[in-house]
Please model this.
Amino acid sequence: MIRSKRLLFLFRLIVGGVFVWAGILKIADPLEFAQNIKNYHFFPHEMIFFIAIVLPWVEVLSGGFLILGIFRRSSALIISVLLAVFIGLVGLALLRGIDTSCGCFGSFSRKADLSLILADAILLFFSLSILKGQALERRTVPAGKASSAA
Model:
């Protein structure tokens, strides 16, 4: 378990930065992102445009909050869930033989492949470390406050 506040801060900057960047690029071209979602052949047609409009804003807000240190635990949880879903969707696409772009970074997206799963798994590790670090921070009572609580 990672306890270094500096390392957890670095993880927050990396994960938050990736999600803010990815979300902004998707917001800039929602139709392209909708097409990327459609290419996975997973979601019903009726949901694709809703996801293409809402998901990038969730990414930008969660990433921004993570960077700023606001709602860190909630943001890390949302991002962890999103990363787990992204890993599952890419894995499913690979198993089904779907050759598509990941749609992660708008027109800068790369092919959905095992290296993408590895990159997302690393980000997931960072995000879960932030989440776990926040849980530990909440349980730890500072030395000065322990005596005043008695």
